[in-house]
């Protein structure tokens, strides 16, 4: 017998023993079928080899960016849970332990201006850093971007938006509007197309549906198959007056402005009145504050225009009278 033939027989014997060992691990439930087939074929699990190690330093940077957002304590807690799970699941894969795939499609409940889109952008980047999304970008759409005007148009428009979002997050604001038109409305076609894409591209796309809590819960009730497809549901509460004042300060500081003590009290009083007032639409939270700041900066500019040559400090200061005329929106 030649050395070459001996080597081949030895290799076959080793392969047979390896396959038997892998089958034994599979039958005892220590590895899943895909892992077993990958080991027998002599290649690593593609999901393990393709996923680079998570850069915890970069993850902590993004978590600090999340922490810098005003309020949202419960939101921050849930996001930390999600990424701790993703990190540990990757470590389990590296150690050939069972790591069930995690479904990361989400629903964000909340009124306008509560940080839903901002958090979605941070999540997209974090999923990219984890190796779960190739690009980590956010595509933000609403009903008009998905629903067409004639038969077949809706599927085309929805698929176009899905293609744009592949490798990132598709964020559908006011998603409940897709089900509002009744049985013959094209919005239901968009929902069906979306559900199919979530299955066809489950490793390339994360979908976040967002909207008012009551309307979103109604939307989920119209399609019994939807809630199980969105296992992560996060509520974004309205901001308190203290939080809204903090948001105003951050917006002003980012533009090299600051309030006098009197201006802060005036703003606080204005916000308290705005929150007490009856309104047809929900309070717009940070969006409302941003509009107030824009108005105050304009009124400050008009005030300084009448002065001969304003000093540097005057150019930075927002005074109490600059808030006058601010209206609830």
Task: Walk me through the structure.
This is AAA family ATPase. Belongs to the CbxX/CfxQ family. The chain has 329 residues and is an alpha/beta fold. It has helices at residues 3-27, 33-41, 46-50, 56-67, 73-94, 116-129, 143-146, 153-165, 187-200, 213-221, 226-229, 241-254, 261-276, 286-305, 312-316, and strands spanning 106-110, 138-141, 168-173, 205-211, 232-236, 258-259, 317-318. The chain has a five-stranded parallel β-sheet with strand order 2-3-4-1-5. Strands 6-7 form a two-stranded parallel ribbon. Strand 3 (168-173), helix 9 and strand 4 (205-211) form a beta-alpha-beta unit. The longest helix is centred in the first third of the chain and has 25 residues, at 3-27. It is globular, with a radius of gyration of 27 Å. Mean pLDDT is 86; it is low at 43-50.
Which features would summarize this protein structure in a list?
P-loop_NTPase; five-stranded parallel sheet; globular; 15 helices; two-stranded parallel ribbon; 329 residues; alpha/beta; AAA_lid_6
């Amino acid at each position: 017998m030649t050395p070459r033939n001996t080597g081949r027989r030895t290799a076959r014997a080793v392969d047979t023993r390896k396959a038997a060992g892998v089958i034994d691990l599979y039958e005892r439930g220590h590895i899943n079928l895909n892992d077993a087939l990958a080991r027998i074929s002599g290649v690593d699990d593609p999901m393990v080899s393709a996923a680079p190690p998570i850069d915890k330093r970069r993850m902590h940077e993004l978590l600090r960016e999340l922490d810098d957002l005003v309020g949202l304590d419960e939101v921050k807690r849930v996001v930390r849970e999600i990424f701790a799970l993703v990190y540990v699941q990757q470590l389990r894969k590296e150690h050939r332990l069972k790591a069930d795939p995690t479904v990361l499609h989400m629903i964000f409940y909340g009124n306008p201006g509560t940080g839903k889109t901002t958090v979605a952008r941070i999540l997209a980047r974090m999923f990219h850093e984890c190796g779960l999304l190739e690009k980590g970008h956010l595509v933000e759409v609403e009903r008009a971007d998905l629903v067409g005007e004639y038969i077949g148009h809706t599927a085309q428009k929805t698929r176009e938006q899905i293609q744009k979002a592949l490798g990132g997050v598709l964020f559908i604001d006011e998603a409940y509007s897709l089900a509002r038109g009744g049985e013959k409305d094209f919005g239901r076609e968009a929902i069906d197309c979306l559900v199919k894409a979530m299955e066809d591209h489950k490793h390339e796309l994360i979908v976040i549906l967002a909207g008012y809590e009551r309307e979103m819960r109604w939307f989920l009730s119209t399609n019994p198959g939807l809630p199980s497809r969105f296992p992560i549901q996060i509520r974004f509460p309205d901001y308190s007056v203290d939080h809204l004042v903090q948001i105003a300060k951050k917006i002003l500081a980012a533009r090299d402005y600051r309030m006098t003590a009197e201006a802060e009290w005036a703003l606080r009083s204005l916000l308290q009145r705005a929150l007490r007032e009856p309104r047809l639409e929900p309070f717009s939270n940070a969006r409302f504050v941003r509009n107030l700041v824009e108005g105050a900066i304009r009124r400050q500019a008009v005030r300084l225009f009448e002065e001969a040559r304003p000093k540097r400090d005057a150019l930075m200061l927002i005074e109490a009278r600059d808030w006058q005329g601010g209206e609830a929106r």
